[in-house]
Amino acid sequence: MKKVMLVLMVLLSVLTMVGCSKNEEVSVVEEIIQDQPLRIISLSPSQTENLFALGLGDQIIGVSDFCDYPAEVLTIEKMGSSWTINLERILEMDPDIVFIYAGGQPEAVEQMNDAGIQVVDFTPESIDEVFESILETGELTNRVDEAQRIVEELQTEKELIVSKVKDLPKVPVFYQIWDEPLQTAGPGSFTHELIELAGGENIAGDTDTEYPMYSVEALVEKNPEIYFMPPHVQNFEEMTEEMAETYREEVRNRPGYDQIKAIRENKIELMEPNISSRPGVRIIKGLRMFAEAIHPEVF
User: Fold this and answer.
1) 3-state secondary structure of 254
2) pTM score, two decimals?
3) What does the pLDDT look like over 184-241, one tens digit per residue?
4) Where do the domains of the chain lie, and which CATH numbers do they carry?
5) Phi, psi (rounded to 5 degrees) for 50
6) Which of 185, 189, 244, 237 is nearest to 212 (CA)?
7) Which of 3, 92, 175, 289 could bridge to 228 as Cys pair (CB 3.0-4.6 Å)?
8) How many CB atoms lie within 10 A of CB 245?
9) Are 136 and 116 in contact (CB under 8 A)?
């Protein structure tokens, strides 16, 4: 893209010399930009999913070590992650845009900016912010119509799911992000929003951070009726029922957990981590997963 900008500058000079009008100059420039594919690196798994949904998969030249969906991404060169950036390789690849998550590595980001690379940070923590990130990505990559269509479809699906559960009793639930130490999703996180919209009551809703540590004592006191957890597996779809039961059994055997209603009644729901923990284009699929587990009677 930096080479393209040089061509554009030369072209503008020529157009001006031969007496082109300003509108004609802008029209030609826009046409060249639209015809030029971007070279994109995404160091954010959720953003990679957004890019593929927008039809930009063939313009992605590098992804993070954790990008694994859709399947086509597995053949793209790995560039580290937002926090372990392979800066030397990225500079060699000469991308036009690098997408990062949660600020990335400040020094690496500064060096990429100095090299003329546009660095974009999307760290959405709500459904609306996910939608905004999709729309902004569409604007950055000349996929405005596609982005608008995707967001409209997701919004419609969200409204349908919420309409099914909004008048039903709230069910107290717990979402385990990590087991040792025990960590959950609190207010301000997109997971908390998904649970609440899906007809659940997040028992960690009274904590003061997005992803707080949580004590077993508090867990027993709040006594959730459903215990959500993402198993530590590379491919959720390949997990057998025997493997799933092993994860549930591990939870049942934890000290003190036999006092929790969700555990006593075997309401341990295994969530696909790449859906329930990524704020990207599949976020409404995550909402449906929560809603179907909390209120199966209306689905």
Assistant:
1) coil
2) 0.86
3) 999 999 999 999 999 999 999 999 999 999 999 999 999 999 999 999 877 888 889 9
4) 2-150 (3.40.50.1980), 167-298 (3.40.50.1980)
5) -60, -45
6) 185
7) 175
8) 13
9) no
